[in-house]
Amino acid sequence: PVAYFKQGEAVRGKEAFTWQWQGADWYFSSQENLDTFKADPETYAPQFGGYCAFGVSKGALYKIEPDAWKIVDGKLYLNYNKSVQKQWEANQTEFIKKAESNWPKVIE
User: Hey, which end of the chain has fewer CB within 10 Å, N or C?
Assistant: First the structure.
C-alpha cells in the first residue's frame, strides 16, 4: 500500500517484507516501505478494508484490481476494476460519504 503513495502505482510485495496487521498479512516491495507502513499503518492502509470503495457505497463487499485506485484527501481507495473506478470517480465525494456510512453495516 505504501507504493501507491510513494511510487504512484501498485507494486507487488515480497514475502521477505511481510508484516501482520489487523489480522492480515501485508506485503511490501521494500524494507523502506515496510518500515514506513509500520510507523503509521492508518495513513497507508486502503479504506474499507481494501474492498472496492464503489461496492461499499452500494452496501456490498467486492474484491479489487490493484491498478484501479486513487488517493483522495490523503486516503487510498481501491475499486473493482478500471471501469467501476470511472463510475466512482464521476461522483467520488458522494460515493465516499455513502461508503463511510455503509461501512459499519457492511462488515457486520
Answer: C
Task: Tell me the pLDDT tens digit for each residue of 17-50.
Answer: 999 999 999 999 999 999 999 999 999 999 999 9
Q: Are 31 and 64 in contact (CB under 8 A)?
A: no
Q: How far apart are CA 93 and CA 31, in angstroms?
A: 34
b/e burial code for range 35-72 (CB count within 10 A of at least 16 → b):
ebbeeeeeebbbbbebbbbbbbbeeeebebbeebbeee
Whether the CB-CB separation of 4 and 76 falls below 8 Å is answered with yes
63-82 tens-digit pLDDT: 999 999 999 999 999 999 99
What pTM was estimated for this model as a whole?
0.95
Q: Are 29 and 45 in contact (CB under 8 A)?
A: no
Position 45, amino acid = A
CA 29 – CA 42 distance, rounded (Å): 18
